[in-house]
Amino acid sequence: MYRQIKGKDVWHFCTNCSMWPTSDYKESESPTPGELCNECKSKKKSGECR
Ligand SMILES: [Zn+2]
Fold this sequence. Notes:
4-stranded mixed beta sheet; globular; binds zinc ion
């Protein structure tokens, strides 16, 4: 599941991301075209994405 803070273009997909939205966000299984969070991407790369 992906989350995006309302009004922002960046999608997060790691619940342990320091920027993971916990309020005022929208959720999607398939994010619309937009940016993916760099922190989430690097966590995934190093196997730390939760
Ligand atoms: Zn993120």
